[in-house]
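Appendix C: a fully annotated inverse folding record. The material below is reproduced so that readers can follow the format used throughout the book. The structure is listed first as tokens, followed by the designed sequence.
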């Protein structure tokens, strides 16, 4: 599956997982959106229904600081998708929901689209990739190959549980962050 990165050059180049994927030849730098575009502000959640588009046209990750980019600055076209709740395994945002690195977001997308081997290949390029997988394995397996409605039901159950038992959960929930 083709992976594309739109790089806004807002992150530390040494920590930027998008740049690393490009350097390793696992992603291509682009200025235009191609295929499925990962956008934390989208109203549509990535699901198996998106696999055909992703296989045909690829997945584009927007590598930017979501603290800087506003919701209104991104055009929301038909192929923009957000990820369901997942927890960051990266050292900067460890265990914070929705605060994934570009690489984590792409790996999660591949996993949800039932491209598990490709997802693991991406995660193996960073030393904390296994941490992301360990934190999210149950969630990723529950989302894998599911339609959007099913994923939204799973996500709602998880969010309801977190809100009922906030002291038992070490993760903070901050929706709208992918980098």
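Designed amino acids, in order:
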């Amino acid at each position: 599956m083709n992976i594309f990165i739109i790089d806004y050059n807002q992150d530390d180049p040494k920590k930027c997982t998008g740049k690393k994927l490009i350097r390793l030849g696992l992603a291509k730098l682009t200025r235009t959106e191609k295929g499925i575009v990962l956008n934390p502000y989208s109203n549509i959640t990535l699901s198996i229904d998106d696999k055909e588009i992703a296989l045909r046209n690829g997945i584009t990750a927007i590598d930017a600081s979501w603290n800087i980019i506003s919701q209104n600055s991104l055009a929301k076209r038909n192929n923009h998708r957000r990820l369901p709740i997942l927890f960051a395994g990266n050292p900067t945002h460890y265990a914070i929901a929705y605060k994934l690195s570009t690489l984590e977001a792409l790996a999660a997308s591949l996993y949800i689209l039932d491209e598990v081997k490709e997802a693991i290949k991406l995660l193996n390029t960073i030393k904390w990739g296994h941490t992301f997988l360990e934190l999210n394995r149950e969630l990723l397996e529950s989302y894998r190959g599911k339609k959007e409605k099913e994923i939204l039901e799973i996500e709602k159950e998880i969010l309801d549980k977190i809100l009922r038992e906030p002291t038992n959960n070490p993760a903070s929930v901050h929706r709208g962050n992918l980098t």
